[in-house]
Amino acid sequence: MTPLAFLERTAAVFPDTIGVVDEDRRLTWAELRERARRLAVALQEAGIAAGDRVAFLALNTTELLEAHFGVPASGAVLVAVNTRLLADEIAYILGHSGSRIVVVDPSLAHLVEGAQGQGKHLERVIVLGEDYEAFLAGAGDGEPENRLVSEDDTISINYTSGTTGRPKGVMYTHRGAYLNALAEAHHSRLDSRSIFLWTLPMFHCNGWCFPWAVTAVGARHVCLRRVDPPLVWKLIADEQVTHLNGAPTVLVMLGADEAAHPLERPVQVTTAGAPPPPAVISRTEALGFRINHVYGLTETYGPITVCEWHAEWDEADDEERARLKARQGVAVVTSDRVRVVDVDMRDVPADGETMGEVVMRGNNVMKGYFADEAATAEAFRGGWFHSGDLAVMHPDGYIEVRDRAKDIIISGGENISTIEVERALVRHPDVLEAAVVAIPDEKWGERPKGYVTLRPGSTLTAEELIAFSRETLPGFKAPSEIEFGELPKTSTGKVKKYELRARARAGS
């Protein structure tokens, strides 16, 4: 089982059908297949061996799409890097993964300028455009040498957001990617008449496996470099878009845009990343979007559960329907069941009230963390992957996530480490202590809020401290609010974050 078979089949069945729309460029499936072939051959001719890592720091363009086929077809492992990270974080990922080649978008090239000197393995930086096209053009004729040994070979490594320190490299297999792609195609109701708009970053869990899912059914990819709400509305109309994916913040952005209007025909939206508020679901569906709510993590190839809909729920009022749809649901069709367990790995009562940790296992769960056996063993203790998410199990077998055990903040579908933000704040000479928690945000789902104790006599303002944090943090990680004062602590000196969370919710 390998998703590489999807492109082979679709290029054979629909060779002259437009498979990719990328601004002014349109490629047939045969043309996409040829570009992926050239990439695979060029990599092999450049000395890339089986199992070597090839990184892409790219936006949602044709090149990153074809990389999902060309890189693994060469026998190499794709490392799609988060374009929102800082240069230091990107350098770490390139070094830790041992990537020998990195392909980079011209607008992001400055982020890898120093990486080649830092990494022991990085040999070449290829810039998209003339450099990359020349690399493809130089590929020889014929098919790439088949270097795949097993469906359990690693197809990609996706780095987490580093919520407990440095990011970890999550290894996906050909088998897992194949099965999860089929699950996403099924639950999203994709077929050869579908037109899929790339509002979800392809670097995020390999686009939740949708580069492979859309290709598997012969649907059409419509590339989008960045989420631009007016452009999204325009493309929905001009390209007759039927499907798109994104975090709840994308739904908020689309609904709040001046171009928002009731759709002439439904558009299927698969959403995940943060629990979508029922109010957001209601407002989005009122415009004609059909919400498909899923849940998962980087370690589960993206979505591993879906809020499978029941026909009888159609009769419920809007508020109840939105409440039901906001639950994370049940395992996808290709996954083992998802459990909610206590500290002794016993299933919690299915009462919708008792909280436990969400655990999962099966083909849709990662192979392990790259070059980190200790973290892998800890994540799989008891034979199940531990998500760190706290949830309840409802009587009907549907899970609902209630909290995050590791204080992760999910903002716009991206994970933010509170520890990382706290460290950035404490770097300021006027800051004695800092604690960061999540506050609800209508647009982004959640945003960081900082509680800070200043040095006596300091005149530092919240605006100045937020601006200072942005010097070392990407904009999406910087706190949106700061409150000054003493931090509540336990008798052992630990900050009572649960009190701060309650205060933040009350204030919001």
Short description, anyone?
The protein is an alpha/beta fold. Helix content is 31%, strand content 25%.
Report on the structure:
This protein is α/β, with parallel strands linked by helices and 508 residues long. It is built from 17 helices and 25 strands. The strands form six sheets. It has a nine-stranded mixed β-sheet, with helices on both faces. Strands 4-3-5-6 form a four-stranded parallel β-sheet, with helices on one face. The longest helix has 17 residues, at 29-45. The relative contact order is 0.09. The mean pLDDT is 93.
List keywords for this structure.
Rossmann fold; alpha/beta; four-stranded parallel sheet; GMP Synthetase, Chain A, domain 3
Annotated CATH architecture of the domain at 4-226:
3-Layer(aba) Sandwich
Summarize the amount of helix as a percent range.
25-40%
Distance N to C terminus: 48 Å
What do we call the CATH homologous superfamily of the domain at 4-226?
ANL, N-terminal domain
Low-pLDDT residue spans: none
* CATH class descriptor of the domain at 4-226: Alpha Beta
Counting copies of identical and different chains, the oligomeric state is single chain
Radius of gyration: 23 Å
- What is the mean pLDDT? 93
Strand runs, count: 25
